[in-house]
Amino acid sequence: VLPNTAGCHSVREAVTTAEMAREVFGTDWIKLEVIGDADTLQPDVFGLVEAARILTDDGFKVFPYTTEDLVVAERLIEAGCRVLMPWGAPIGTGKGLNNVYGLRALRAHFPEVPLVVDAGLGLPSHAAAAMELGYDAVLLNTAVALAGDPVAMAKGFALAVEAGRFACEADPMAPRDMAEPSTPVIGLASL
How far apart are the first and last CA of the chain? Predict the structure, then answer.
């Protein structure tokens, strides 16, 4: 069980919830959410960094739900976080990876930090895309919970994560703007 501070809108709420979760579940691991906007469920990154610092100083292993912002990520690392969990899209939207550029930059900037795409995934292909970017994992709930066949959807995500990891490790070809024949044309007869 990874307890979290879902629904907390302030540093105080998040810290109190984390402390209660530690007592109830007997773990110092916490998924930290400090929500800044009720409509998009976007993290309050200022409150998130403050809460992360308080909790890591108190011995928690903090898994922060954040955006793909590089500066915020750096502040979370400085606050003691050893894992970063940027959103793919707002929680529960199923829109996939809204900012591939930002997620790619985050992976490049923090090559040694475990990165988990947390939120916004709706299809297994979204998970495969995250893994192809070099992410270490994805965290999901709504995509499986709201599927017509949750067991089949969970299996689809498991296979997609595996496929995405294989693709990343295979050193895929770079995309090109122009076509390039895959079959040699030297020495072929022409009309």
Answer: 68
